[in-house]
Write a structure and sequence with these properties.
The complex is a heterodimer of chains A (about 325) and B (about 425). Helix content of chain A is about 35%, strand content about 15%. In chain B, strands 11-13-12-15-16-17 form a six-stranded mixed sheet, with helices on both faces. A five-stranded mixed sheet of chain B has the order 5-6-8-7-14, with helices on both faces. The radius of gyration of chain B is 22 Å and the shape is globular.
Chain lengths: ~325, ~425
């Protein structure tokens, strides 16, 4: 690792920009990432939000933030960011705003807004090389409306619109949309996945992204206690298991070139991650569905086989 | 130097200076672009749609040539365009944008947001009938669909009015007693693509009329703020909506004040409504936009024939200047509201507005006749207006009129002929 502000966990101390007492659920994975993200970016930030769980962090007249916040609508947070960035740029250029007053413009949305209703707006902003950050907190469903499946919901998950029944034993039949690859196809200068269980990895990635002008995109796994069905104290554990079982790869793409930042020597069985969550309970009770669990495990292994055969082999050649 | 001169020579010479009026011959669209330039807007988010495109083409050309300093960003949709317009306005930029028809409807969600954010942008809509069926011709269903959004709605009749109303709109929208966005409407093709002599004021004159825009709490590093946030207590939501309503009502007098200042600066007089041969007439027709020009001509001819008719042209639609409209129409024997829109199952949209204004008057007209004309760009001829006035004379003695749907015999023959081809006869 080259020059970094983040050498040990102690470097994560310092000023908090999200004060305690938000109305979000206890154990919210999105909030953990959000808090760290804010630390890495500093105070001079304007968040631009689309409808989702995080929207309810600020309900008039209370805000836990020491920074600025703009709620737009569900489908257009990146366009809202465009307006703020463009306005600051032209007003600074005209000499009407002191450059000291400039702000980092950061879009924060859930996976539903990122993958579905807001995808066009994001695609446009990335294509236009808008100088902004995008943090997608991925709780793998429309969480704020009570956990219905989104394009980010994995195969086999129970949601309120994909209940497992004798006719549909797996629950959700769709596959998770690959937002990383969709975004990568736009060739942004920086793109990464992160996890609140790996804060050093996250902070260094945000730090690295700062070097680039243009779209800097992040997708964070965001375990959701009420939606996923686990005890609120286990959020970090869920995120870590997702990384260690290989279902949530930690990676980055600099100008499109992908590199995994954490390559497990051996993958933990996916089952360890699945069986701790209510949303996958139907795969184990009353009958163990080996077929479905096996299919999910094979998909993870298939992914990593490709990674091992390219990146790990290349590293050995070096 | 050479290079810039070359580019200047290559530019299409559209702006022919009329020797008689000392004005430029401009389309409504280019006039709208001039208004944005003269208002020295900082930011123009845009997305092309017929018949609005010429506005953003012109602005982008001026910016590319370095003649006009502003940021123009072509975004991915009208929804994004309006989102960017609103947030830029809250960041302290003076914002201009334009759309038409489907585009206005596609971005509709953001109209309510921009108004609720109290972001005083000016949006030009070049009216075009809404699909389905698809049309390129004008009517006012697109424009009037925004009437409950909180935008101030102004309708232009001529190219000069396009320019003047945009300048007036900035002054009114940015006034602290109002702080609501404006939508200035012109009729597609009829106004957008028709060249008329337009007096383009000097920028110094415009500066005297239009003060600089200042956003009270823009997004700045030293002063964090949260905007557009949720309000979960119902009385608080009501409170904010009432505030918007009261501010919108304020816009009537703020507009009148601005008109006085406007006259002082540019020697042209406007008001929330325009009366044409109306004060002494027995009958009245109510119209707006480019079709009001046809209405005025019809009124002039009918007057020469001895028919006592006048015209009320609506200019400000929201807020609805009820007192002015009531005063203008009280005492008339009968009034026809010619709506260039259709609300299926109701009739005309403005008919309801005008009727509700007059209902509580002691001196209200005996009858208010609902007329639908000009939908999807259908022309309205002198004969049709003559027919409407004849109906007014008839109904003034009693009867309960149904909405009149204007369609001439020659038009009906054309429709029937097309229908025969359509069904393969």
């Amino acid at each position: 690792m080259a020059q970094t502000r983040y050498r040990s966990l102690k470097d994560l101390l310092g000023e908090e920009y999200v004060v305690p007492g938000t109305p979000l659920c206890s154990g919210c994975g999105a909030l953990l990432t959000f808090r760290l993200f804010h630390k890495a970016l500093g105070k001079k930030v304007v968040w631009v939000n689309a409808a989702g769980c995080i929207t309810l962090m600020i309900v008039y007249p209370f805000s836990p933030l020491k920074s600025s916040w703009m709620y737009t609508a569900m489908g257009c947070a990146p366009a809202g960011a465009q307006g703020i960035r463009d306005a600051l740029d032209i007003l600074i250029e005209k000499g009407e705003v002191d450059p000291e007053e400039d702000l980092k413009v950061v879009v924060v949305t859930g996976d539903g807004a990122a993958n579905d209703i807001g995808l066009q707006s994001a695609s446009g902003a990335i294509h236009r090389r808008l100088d902004f950050y995008y943090l997608c907190y991925d709780n793998e469903a429309f969480g704020n409306t009570g956990f219905q499946f989104s394009p980010s919901t994995p195969y086999g998950s129970k949601t309120m619109t994909s209940l497992p029944t004798p006719l549909i034993p797996e629950g959700h039949k769709g596959r998770k949309k690959d937002l990383f690859e969709i975004w990568r196809a736009h060739n942004p200068p920086y793109l990464a996945t992160v996890s609140p269980s790996h804060p050093m990895d996250m902070m260094r990635k945000i730090e690295k992204a700062e070097r680039f002008k243009g779209p800097k995109l992040f997708i964070s796994i965001s375990p959701c206690p009420p939606g996923w069905g686990y005890d609120t104290m286990k959020t970090i554990r869920m995120a870590r298991l997702a990384v260690e079982t290989g279902v949530w790869p930690l990676k980055e793409a600099v100008h499109g070139e992908v590199r995994h930042t954490f390559i497990p020597r051996s993958l933990k069985p996916l089952e360890e991650y699945l069986k701790e969550q209510e949303r996958f309970k139907h795969l184990f009770y009353p009958l163990r569905r080996e077929d479905i669990i096996g299919r999910m495990q094979r998909e993870v292994e298939e992914y990593w086989r490709k990674v091992y055969s390219t990146e790990v082999l290349e590293e050995k050649k070096d | 130097m050479m290079r810039s001169k070359l580019i200047a020579e290559l530019r299409p010479r559209r702006e022919v200076v009329s020797t008689i009026t000392k004005s430029k011959m401009l389309t409504g669209n280019v006039t709208a672009a001039w208004a944005a330039r003269l208002a020295e807007v900082d930011y123009i988010p845009a997305f092309p749609i017929t018949p609005q495109t010429e506005i953003i083409e012109k602005l982008s050309e001026w910016i590319a040539l370095g003649e006009f300093k502003a940021k123009l960003t072509i975004v991915d949709s009208e929804h994004s365009m309006l989102a960017a317009a609103g947030t830029a306005s809250l960041t302290g930029a003076r914002v201009f944008t334009a759309t038409s028809s489907q585009g206005l409807l596609y971005g509709f969600e953001m109209l309510y947001n921009i108004a609720g954010w109290r972001a005083p942008i000016v949006l030009v809509n070049v009216s075009r009938a809404v699909a389905a069926p698809i049309s390129l011709e004008p009517d006012h269903n697109d424009f009037l669909s925004t009437r409950d959004s909180g935008f101030i709605l102004l309708q232009a009749e001529t190219c000069q009015e396009v320019l003047d109303l945009i300048l007036l709109a900035y002054r009114v929208s940015e006034d602290n007693r109002v702080l609501l966005p404006s939508l200035v409407n012109m009729d597609g093709f009829h106004t957008s693509f028709t060249r008329e002599p337009v007096k383009i004021p000097e920028i110094e004159e415009v500066r005297r009329f239009l003060p600089k825009y200042t956003q009270q709490l823009p997004f700045r590093a030293s002063k964090p703020s949260a905007k557009g946030v949720a309000v979960l207590r119902p009385p608080l939501y009501s409170f904010y909506k009432y505030q918007m309503h009261l501010s919108s009502i304020n816009a009537i007098n703020v507009f009148k004040e601005a008109c006085e200042k406007f006259e002082e600066c540019f020697a042209r007089r406007y008001d929330v409504i325009e009366k044409y041969m109306l004060d002494d007439s027995k009958y009245a027709i109510v119209m707006m936009g480019s079709y009001a020009s046809i209405g005025k001509k019809a009124v002039r001819i009918l007057r020469e024939e001895g028919v006592s008719v006048g015209l009320l042209k609506l200019r400000m639609i929201r807020p609805l200047p009820s007192k002015d409209i009531r005063k203008a129409l009280e005492g008339k024997k009968a009034v026809a509201v010619i709506d260039q829109n259709i609300s299926p199952g109701l009739g005309g949209i403005l008919y309801s507005d005008i009727s509700s204004i007059l209902y509580n008057s002691d001196n209200k007209p005996k009858v208010i006749l609902p007329v639908i004309g000009g939908v999807g760009g259908k022309t309205i001829t002198l004969d049709e207006i003559r027919y409407v006035v004849e109906l007014l004379e008839k109904y003034a003695n009693g009867g309960e009129p149904e909405p009149i749907l204007l369609l001439r015999e020659d038009e009906l023959r054309e429709v029937e002929s097309l229908l025969r081809i359509g069904v393969g006869e």
